[in-house]
Design goal:
Length: 316
């Protein structure tokens, strides 16, 4: 797919595709073979950013964390790294590397480098806020990794707008490398960030890369009232959206727009998200190539103003 519209990631020199491939399933619901197939298909279709975290998938019995990074590292070693591929990972939740202290951030970054088999991490996120560590210490730790060439750019995830603003102010006051992006929970069914985080991101030039872009799979259209059970670890959370009156209305709108374009509902939901103010790339994962095929059309899909407005009003 050669019509992928790349976007600049904040004030960085990274350019990313509208679909950011989530790596949380690699080494979990997608084994190494399936993961390789998904990564092959994604990059062949013009995808340029893969998102993971050092904690993926420590919640699975018998896992220690780092499984996703290890699979991605094996794929990079086997295939060779595409020149334009951005690798993003995170720190703070791995069982052996919890929090955002200076020592932990440094140790976790080097552990991620080893698992990924790369010399530099393109985008390194503070995965969750750490109230037990002074924010200045965390900001300095990440900035020093940029100076040392361990990472290229900094991102924040699951931080409140106030804490993001404070981090940015510390960087400005101390001459530190500042975050260039934020990874929030945001989709057609979860729009709370529009009142505070989105304005902050626009004010400070931060790119947004939302996770759960498909509302845990609800926006794929496979969850319907009275419909069959779905084999997914997130099925319960996704089906809960049907309890909200607007859940069915959103599905109806997605159905109509998807039919008009001849694409899956998932790609329509992601296209709406990818074109929201401040958003440069929407994160979604696929445990096999069949699921990925439902996401890839977003690379070339442009909704009309009327279609986008319809989804915005229906999901309000």
């Amino acid at each position: 797919m050669n019509d992928t519209r790349l976007r600049r990631l904040g004030r960085s020199d990274l350019y990313v595709s509208p679909l950011c491939l989530g790596g949380n399933v690699f080494g979990w619901t997608a084994d190494e073979t399936a993961s390789f197939q998904v990564l092959d298909a994604y990059t062949a279709a013009g995808g340029t950013i893969v998102d993971t975290a050092d904690v993926y998938s420590a919640w699975v019995e018998g896992h220690r964390g780092g499984e996703s990074e290890t699979v991605i590292g094996a794929w990079l070693a086997a295939r060779g790294r595409p020149d334009d591929l951005v690798i993003a990972t995170k720190v703070s939740q791995h069982p052996e590397f919890r929090g955002l202290s200076r020592a932990n951030v440094r140790a976790a970054a080097h552990a991620s480098l080893h698992r990924l088999g790369v010399r530099t991490i393109d985008l390194y996120y503070a995965h969750f806020d750490d109230r037990d560590t002074p924010l200045a210490e965390s900001a300095e730790a990440f900035s020093s990794l940029v100076d040392e060439g361990v990472i290229r750019y900094i991102g924040l995830s699951n931080h409140s707008p106030d804490r993001i603003r404070e981090w940015l102010d510390i960087c400005a006051d101390r001459g530190l490398h500042a975050p260039v992006c934020v990874q929030p929970h945001y989709n057609l069914m979860e729009r709370g960030i529009e009142t505070d985080l989105v304005p902050l991101a626009q004010e400070r030039g931060l790119a947004l890369l939302p996770y759960f872009g498909l509302a845990r799979g609800f926006l794929t259209g496979k969850y319907r009232p009275g419909g069959p059970d779905v084999d997914s670890p997130r099925a319960g959370s996704a089906r809960a959206y049907l309890d909200r009156p607007r859940g069915e209305r959103v599905l109806e709108a997605l159905d109509a727009i998807a039919a008009e374009h001849g694409v899956p509902q998932a790609s329509v939901a992601l296209a709406w998200l990818a074109d929201r103010p401040g958003v440069v790339s929407a994160i979604a994962s696929a445990r096999d190539t069949a699921q990925l095929e439902g996401l890839l059309p977003v690379h070339g899909l442009k909704l009309t103003e009327e279609e986008s407005d319809r989804l915005t009003k229906t999901s309000a």
